[in-house]
Amino acid sequence: MVKGRLGRPSDTSAGKAQSAFVAMSPTQTGDYDLIKEAVLKKYQIHAETDHQRFRSMETPADYSPQELYTRLKDLFCKWVKYDRSGKEAIMETLVLEQFLRVLYPEVRTWVKDYDPTTAAGAATLVESYTTARKVPGAYCYAGLLQQARDCQVDIALLLDSSYNIGQRRFNLQKNFVSKLALMLRIGPEGPHLGVVHVSEMPRTEFYLKNFTQPKDVISAIKEMGFRGGNTNTGKAMLHTVESFFSAENGMRRGLPRVAVVFVDGWPSDDLEKAATRARESGINVFLVTVSKAAPEELGMVQDRNFVQKAVCRDNGFFSFYMPSWFSTNKYVKPLTQKICSVDQMLCSKTCYNSVNLGFLIDGSSSVGDGNFRLVLEFMAGIANAFEISDMGARVGAVQFTYDQKLEMDFSDHKEKEAALEALRSISYMSGGTATGDAITYTIANLFQPHKASLSRNVLIIITDGQSYDDVRGPALAAKSEGITVYSVGVAWAPLDDLRAMASEPKESHTFFTRDFSGLEQFQQTIVRGICRDFNEAQ
């Protein structure tokens, strides 16, 4: 190349080259070789970069086996500055080695049984493998296994098996969920999946525990028969909540639970009650609707807002629409990504969204108004760690002297900010100290009216002195009601009473500080303790 025959590099370069050119010294910008060297250096374009790309386990999700082979071959040539007159056997050996390395274990084992000698031959074998499974374009055959480990969820697929969908579309639905199961990469370390029929009466086709390999799940789906009857989606959802998700049926402790509900058209029954039970049980409900009611059919739809009422949260994330059962390949990946978005599973039952958090506050004369404000801030700091909502954590409070006052019921505030403001606004009573009577009052007036709640009950008692009545009997009654008790003492509060009121183990449920200013140090410890108790009880 003759220097000076080209236009100025600043005129012909763009993107990364332009950025590197601008950063160069003016005395160097006329030399093409120096410009090339600057671009390569600035963006770390060198043999080691290509080596790392060649050895990477990350593969483009939409690449065919032949495209993957071509990509590896190109990266290899860039890495070793491959000369076509060189030893092609070396390249074929290394590319074949890397091609096999990025395949999923079950695919790799199948391919190696045929002993391919080139990566091109191995790619052809992978195509045969995926074609035989009748899922072209949807089968994930290579890449990082981390995807499966990141998608550790227990899934119930509620398939429409009613007269509404009919036999033909039912078969198309089975094809779609087969592709979904393959894309999810069902496996021991990944998602587990079961199927429930939505028809006149719900029926479980298979449970989470029955299959942990994609081929077995696909085979079971293929063998499913059409049932018919009305589209009683609500009944099927209740069945899933009450019978499907259980330890004996394969539900794994501590993992998100997901129900993917397919509705062709509209349901025959009401979904609201079932959806509420699902949310209370910590199940993330996704609704997949296929085709909408025509204008002349709207009169037949029992509830036109059934989607909004059924999903985990009406925020758009938990609803999914497909116009028909034809040409559905393009919907497999987006739905898979939603199901595997564990960080967005807002209805998963955790300690932060599944507790009734009660505070029992000493308002006696020895506390004083200034210290009482510190107590309220201490309470608000603990409550702030929880997801307070109508379907999440709830907060209540009772203040006591010789008398008791229900300051805040669990049902009073359904938003966090309102609940925190209400806690901080409690007025100081002043008076004597009767902690035992206060515990009895709190059981009867704060916790028992909400006995039907599935949330865990927690009571945090905060007092600064000796009670004039017995605390042991009322504390035992609280524990027998399933209430976990934390006792927090300040100043003159007797340690014996604090330990008597606290749940077991006493050491992790009893706290004491000499000054009210020391309460803040206990906030995070108590929150972690509540979560520990919650997880141990699951």
TrEMBL record:
Record keyword Repeat present: yes
PROSITE patterns: SCAN_BOX, VWFA
Segments forming domain VWFA: 154-339, 356-526
Keywords recorded for this protein, A-Z: Repeat
The organism's place on the tree of life at top rank: Eukaryota
InterPro entries referenced in this protein's UniProt entry, alphabetically: ECM_Assembly_Org, SCAN_dom, SCAN_sf, VWF_A, vWFA_dom_sf
Residue span, SCAN box domain: 51-128
Keyword Repeat annotated: yes
Name by which UniProt lists this protein: Cochlin
Organism field: Synaphobranchus kaupii (Kaup's arrowtooth eel)
